[in-house]
Write a structure and sequence with these properties.
about 525 residues; mainly beta; 13-stranded antiparallel sheet; five-stranded mixed sheet; 3 helices; about 5% helix; elongated
Length: about 525
């Protein structure tokens, strides 16, 4: 996991990760100022070390002198050993109301240089008189030299083409979406995607995935939108990937703060939905993909308050993306957690949590099977010792008309802790933090916080495979290997772990619980890697 220092008002924003030479390179925005792109490296995707910042806002008068927004780093297909960073910039001149896409290049992933290398370059192209005002009168030959240097640099920055997209700040919306670039190369075709908006239709339903095709090195020709669902204000941080012969388009939606996806047989569509196209639940945002030696990983940042994303964000562990047999895209637990195992709990060391006047029971059957029951009311069955970071997996089968779930990091006396309610019939998981407030605090004494909900479909209800991961402030629940819940919360740090049943019987098979070493984040600075 990765976050800014707890004491700082700064927080991590949109992320992009590239894997090269055995290292994961994380590039991310720093909120709320958006004045530079930070850079960190890791050899396992869990522990990170900050290195020199990659990019800064431009000098006064540049097209990117106000803010830097989402970026994407990829190999330059035209020059071996070179990397390109497409990034979003905002200018003071138009008060940040128009987004543009810029380019920076690099040979080692550490020292980046913008395609327009100085503020004079860009201002010279747009208004030579501004250069004269800033530096005194310049001879025509120098002004011409400035123009020449810029023209040779690139076709950047890119702006939306009014033929297909909203392009004027004078339109009804008052600001222009053209951000979050993502470069995709398929055979000999290179496409640059962006979060844009078509120029017609209901005002808050114009969000689309804009597209440009690279016609020559660093020069792009505008195409119509790759996908326009006709539902959303924006499709933020688009990604395009090809997996097992199928194409998948991933985007983040502000309306519900979730990461969604669409699928197609060709890049040109049509782009279709499955009955559930949510990759990660609410709070997970700005998903970015990268390919490493084991396949495709999905990265994102998480925020507890979806309406205010400028404080206390973190980047959770990535998810491994796989294509299921029916073509659906699934997120799976990151396999690197097996490297964090430090001990294994004895599955027989489990007991009823509280004395109950209602009939209940806990019967071990072999080394990794339990029969748990409660004929009426609530009963939990927990391991003998408290635990903080762990991975627990099991197959659970419920009989009866009641309920079941998981409990963890719970206090042995007050029973305050995290509770995961599992509705096996409807396919619903809900994580809640149950706590106790100060004495005599009235209704505030009972604290019941719903943290996140997730859904799944299973043709054989009442029997599922569950995996619960608790790693520092990060919490993850998988049902039948697919990630259903993914979030961060620090309400409880350590406590009892187990299962609960209400008016039901629960059979727990293949129970395996590992203690994990807690997360660490390397402090300090490593110049140029």
């Amino acid at each position: 996991m990765f976050s800014e220092s707890n004491w700082s008002r700064k927080t991590i924003g949109d992320v992009d990760v590239l894997y090269h030479g055995g290292l994961y390179h994380l590039f991310h925005l720093v909120l709320p100022n958006h004045d530079f792109v930070a850079h960190a490296i890791s050899d396992n995707g869990l522990n990170w070390r900050r290195v020199d910042n990659a990019l800064f806002i431009g000098n006064p008068g540049s097209w990117d002198d106000l803010m830097l927004w989402t970026m994407h780093v990829s190999a330059d297909p035209h020059t071996r050993g070179r990397w390109r960073m497409f990034y979003t910039g905002l200018s003071r001149r138009d008060q940040g109301r128009k987004q543009r896409i810029g380019l920076a290049v690099n040979e080692d992933l550490y020292v980046w240089r913008k395609a327009d290398t100085s503020w004079e370059d860009h201002r010279g192209r747009n208004d030579p008189e501004l250069i004269k005002q800033a530096r005194g009168a310049l001879p025509n030959s120098v002004s011409d030299l400035v123009r020449s240097r810029f023209d040779e640099a690139s076709c950047f920055p890119l702006e939306p083409d009014g033929e297909f997209y909203e392009s004027s700040v004078d339109d009804d919306r008052g600001w222009i979406s053209f951000r979050d670039p993502f470069y995709f190369q398929n055979d000999e075709r290179g496409l640059l995607l962006a979060a844009g908006r078509v120029n017609e239709g209901p005002l808050v339903r114009r969000g689309c995935v804009a597209a440009m095709e690279e016609t020559s090195p660093n020069c792009f020709h505008t195409l119509p939108a790759v996908h326009h669902p006709q539902l959303y204000d924006d499709i933020e941080v688009p990604n395009l990937l090809k997996l097992d012969g199928a194409y998948y388009l991933i985007g983040s939606i502000r309306e519900d703060a979730k990461i969604r996806y669409w699928h197609a047989h060709t890049i040109d569509g049509p782009w279709r939905n499955y009955y559930d196209n949510v990759l990660l639940p609410e709070g997970n945002y700005a998903g970015r993909i990268c390919r490493d030696d084991s396949g495709i990983l999905l990265w994102n940042f998480y925020t507890q308050d979806s309406s205010q994303r400028t404080a206390n964000n973190l980047m959770p562990p990535p998810k491994r993306l796989v294509r299921s047999s029916d073509g659906q895209l699934r997120a799976r637990t990151y396999e690197q957690f097996v490297q964090r195992i430090i001990a294994t709990l004895d599955p027989c060391c489990i007991h009823p949590w509280k004395q109950s006047h209602q009939p209940s029971g806990c019967h071990p059957v072999g080394r990794d099977c339990l029969h748990l029951s409660s004929e009426a009311g609530f009963q939990a069955f927990v391991f003998n010792e408290p635990i903080d970071c762990f991975s627990m997996r099991a197959k659970i089968t419920m009989t009866g008309i009641g309920k079941c779930g998981l409990v963890y990091r719970a206090d042995a006396n007050s029973h305050d802790g995290y509770y995961v309610s599992l509705d096996l019939m409807k396919g619903v998981a809900q994580l809640r933090a149950w706590g106790t407030g100060p004495l005599n605090s009235g209704e505030q004494m009972m604290r019941f916080h719903s943290l996140q909900s997730g859904y799944w479909h299973d043709p054989t209800p009442q029997e599922v495979r569950v995996r619960l991961l608790s790693f520092g402030s990060y919490h993850e629940l998988c049902i039948n290997e697919n990630v259903i819940l993914s979030l961060a919360d620090t309400t409880f740090q350590e406590g009892m772990l187990g299962f609960y049943v209400e008016t039901a019987k629960l059979r727990v098979d293949d129970l395996l619980v590992h203690r994990l070493s807690p997360p660490t984040q390397t402090e300090g600075h490593l110049a140029n890697g």
